[in-house]
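Hi U.,

Before I forget, here's the chain from the pilot set. I'm dumping it here mostly so it's searchable later in email.
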Amino acid sequence: MNRPVVSSSAARLPARSTRRTWAAALLGGLLAAAGLGTTLSATAAEPAAWPERPVKIVVPFPPGGAADVYARLVGQKLAEVTGNRQPIVIDNKPGAGGIIGTDVTAKSPADGSTFLMVTIGHAVNPFMYAKLPYDTRADFVPVGVVAEVPSVIVTGPALKDKSLKDLLAMARAKPDELQYASSGVGTTSHVGAALIESMTGVRMTHVPYKGAAPALQDVMADRVPLSVDIITSSLPLVTSGKLSAVAVTGAKRAPKLPNVPTVAEAGIPGYEFVSWYMLLAPAKTPRPVLEQVNAELRKVAGLPDFRTRIEDTGGQVITTTLPQANDYLNAEFTRWAKVVKERNIKAD
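Structure:
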């Protein structure tokens, strides 16, 4: 006689009176397991609050400059908005036009504990130096732009009544004779003037110094006629009458020098040049960490006292998302690659 085939598990089912208890227990276990799994999954997906450990912001320049001042202000405010969970310290690593400190950061752990405050030289150096100890693009990732600061074309007493058009006419009449002072090869004051040459076709002679102070000292003494200097260092000398402001390099007039025209207004349409300050991280820093730091940086940018202190130096607070910061830096690479090549700017 043929019998229906019955699975062994079905054959062992308990009687009806106990089936409901068994089913309820099974369902409860499954729900508990599902709940536990959800909790574990959420915990794994949610990164720990930054910072988890002490943080350092490397400044590849000496103390006292704009990059150092802004880094210290950013570090102080980041500590405040994160509840002072961890100390945030500034680590000055000057030398070789910013290369030493940048290299230190490139070789630091990519764990959210090390950042780098850079300025325009970061976008100039890869085209000015034949070889660098790091890959400027591949070894770093932008976290956010902090501020932009315009420069001022300044002249000494001998040229105090000259306009920008006058200076350009002098340069065209006698190519290579008109000199300009800078704080060093590839610095803000160098490339700002090089951009003028690139956009107008005039040829001037670059006189590099070791820092802004000696460069401006020689402009004040009429040993060099002019400089394109960042407003943070030139403003006190302009307001005291020791230097004359010909034009500011930003897209708009500087609030601290409202009567001084922009370079675009004064004779070079389309000219816009600012020194920018940006926070970078080692390239392999986890994306969730970068997103957290960027969010905290944007909180800092909204603090009234932070904005006031940046504006007091002649700067403007800038707020960017991670993609915007990346686009900003890429645009600067493109811009300065062209200028460095055209003007044949090379490291000493």
